[in-house]
User: Fold this.
Amino acid sequence: MATDPLSQNFSNHTRYDPPFHFFIIPVAVASLIITIVHAVKVPAGINFWMIVVALAGLMAAFKIRIYALKVQDRVIRLEERLRLLSVLQEPMRSRIGELSDAQLVGLRFASDRELPALVQRALAEQLSRKDIKKSVTDWRADAARV
Assistant:
């Protein structure tokens, strides 16, 4: 069975949002730098205030991104708890509440077949999100991540 070269795995699952990563953030950083340079060359109250405004814009961009990721993690947490209820057998099913949010987010990549053993390992070894993702052998792609 040939593997799809475009399939998702641990080494390529990180997503970039081109408008955010390659336009909004660079423009916000450049604006802050340009504003600082201008304020140093032309020291006036309004120019120093513009530094504050540029910094607020940069911070707003990051906060908006972080808020979206947090909401997405909450949805993933709910989805994974529902999936675990249908995949796990007792006594593992009764231990779902012991999984941390980060562990639930990491488990989303595991196939249903390997999920029970990985949940058991995650609980026993207190695996981190990254360790869980590294342990997945049958990757379940998540192309909807923001």
User: Anything to note?
Assistant: The chain has two domains: 16-73, 88-141.
